UniProtKB/TrEMBL annotation:
It comes from Limosilactobacillus pontis. It comes from the Bacteria. This is Uncharacterized protein.
Amino acid sequence: MRRWIILPMVAILALAALLGTGGRVQDSKKTANTQLARELLDHQAYADNDPANYGYAKYIRRISDKGSGRITVQVTHNFCRLSSSDKTNVMNQVQVLARMILVENHRVSRHQADQGLVVTIRDQKQVVGRSRPNDRYHYRWRT
């Protein structure tokens, strides 16, 4: 008879623990996205004085953590006018920033970060590029 009482209690406690971590996951995602926005804003402020290190930020509107090592990057219209190699350089600098913040906020492991993030690049609502599945530091660009 006691088993019938204990099993439902264990199930309820397990469900409560699972639901409880959902809030923390959402909090860490929100924290990571807030930190990404702040850092990007700082980099945009530095872009004119130090274009070699921060010039990439002029082409970025927003970086969003989507979870599981995936980010979406909103770009400016001027980004679409860059050459493929310049676009790749900009996105690789975005990855450096995003990886640092996502590791710091425990959104990805260092190992996952070293593999690169899955990046979707958007101009408004249109997808203009994606990182390649087998090499996340190279991208496919929509022409």
